[in-house]
Amino acid sequence: MVLCLAPLRTTTAQSGQCPEIDTTAIWVQVNRAWSNEAGLHWSNDSLRRVLLELVERDQGAREGFGARVTDTTYIRRLVSLDSSLAATMSGILERYGLPTKSLVGPEGSDAAMLIVQHNWPLQERVLAIAKSAPRGQISPEKLAILEDRVLVHQGKPQRLGSQFTARPDGVFTFAPLADTTKLDARRAAVGMPPMRQYVCMMDEAGLRVDHTSLPAAFRP
Hints:
Blueprint: E1 2-3, H1 26-35, H2 45-61, H3 65-68, H4 72-96, H5 101-117, H6 120-132, H7 140-153, E2 164-166, E3 171-174, H8 183-189, H9 195-204, E4 208-209
Parallel strand pairs: 3-4
Antiparallel strand pairs: 1-2, 2-3
Helix pairs in contact: 2-4, 2-5, 5-7, 6-7
């Protein structure tokens, strides 16, 4: 099982042991620039509402995920839900194409990408479409996460360190990475937090991470 974190809240401080979010950081600014819907108009508000309802079901089912990842009954229900949501998403792709910012707004587009993240049969197809979309129509963060996810599924090293694989004991290990050079700078450019902060967010969310699986430079 490969993990994709839920969308990050970049406008509030982190609780617990994680460092407070620096609101002037490049990754935060990139994320905010994408998600800011003030003054925006999109062409299909009814489709947007459908997508937001789908992602609410997706995220609701993942409440307490870290504590339940070894529960096979729970995982079967989750896989069944993901398949159902993916079938709806496939129909949306056939009818409307990939939901973009101009079609459903940033939040609607992000919802579509998150549904895709949780269903492998859609991922390669959507990655190709998203890469060919006009610049600024798909979140750079969601596109980068999807590319990492596809690479890991293909048995290849990921590029930006967004993916972790669950072991049978429920512990998440870092998926192989192609290159650690300037990783945090490359992550920031697409709206991802620094690697250490990302892992801390996972820890705070109740996910058990094998820190020894991380590149040495990013271990606590």
